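Design job #97: recover the sequence.
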């Protein structure tokens, strides 16, 4: 698909609502927010006149056109270029697990499905699974059955979930878990299918998911060897 991105914003907790409100005004209504902590060294904080504070990581899905508009407003309205205000960046999305989640995540952004990402030939992909809290084990069990490695879980609070019934035919709770799993690109489709079959919208986990291209990795050699052994066994 073309011009579809995961937008990541890191800002102070007390300013997060301004960012979410701005994104919603451009059609990026569905966001997930998780708590983080800045780790800048004290000398840097002193130089910028800042204090070490709790951070919020905001994640949403945007089109390229919407990102350009949001970026301009971040600079002109929220003064994001002023030190300490925050940062925002985008990562291209290579696929989304199903048409309904796609429409749910991009409503009001005039997204039209086109060619797949130009980074589709990368060796690895990052699967991002958004699910109700308490169902991580089901998601990871399904992934491991298709030889996926481990995953990382982040607790998040969602906004814009009230639209889910319109697009997905189900009601979604605000409290979410985001599961990040790095997989070989050749395994991606069957791992995504396994997760959606066992932990998809019709299950209690009510998962939606998408994938991001990974351009380079370190520490994945063991996973490669396991995957190769599995492929030889199946052959």
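Job complete. Output follows.
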């Amino acid at each position: 698909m073309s011009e579809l991105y995961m937008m990541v914003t890191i800002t102070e907790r007390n300013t997060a609502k301004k960012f979410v409100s701005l994104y919603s005004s451009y059609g990026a209504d569905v966001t997930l927010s998780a708590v983080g902590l800045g780790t800048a060294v004290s000398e840097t904080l002193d130089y910028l006149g800042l204090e070490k504070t709790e951070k919020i990581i905001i994640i949403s899905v945007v089109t390229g056109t919407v990102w350009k508009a949001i970026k301009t407003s971040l600079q002109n309205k929220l003064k994001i270029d002023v030190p300490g205000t925050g940062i925002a960046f985008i990562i291209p999305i290579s696929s989304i697990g199903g048409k309904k989640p796609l429409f749910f995540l991009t409503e009001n952004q005039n997204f039209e499905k086109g060619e797949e990402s130009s980074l589709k030939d990368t060796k690895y992909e990052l699967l991002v699974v958004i699910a109700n809290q308490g169902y991580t084990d089901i998601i990871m069990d399904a992934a491991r059955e298709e030889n996926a490695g481990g995953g990382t879980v982040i607790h998040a609070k969602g906004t814009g979930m009230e639209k889910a019934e319109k697009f997905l035919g189900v009601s979604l709770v605000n409290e979410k878990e985001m599961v990040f799993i790095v997989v070989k690109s050749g395994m991606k489709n069957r791992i995504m299918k396994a997760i959606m079959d066992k932990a998809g919208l019709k299950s209690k986990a009510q998962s939606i998911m998408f994938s991001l291209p990974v351009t380079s990795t370190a520490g994945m050699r063991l996973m490669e060897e396991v995957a190769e052994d599995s492929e030889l066994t199946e052959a």
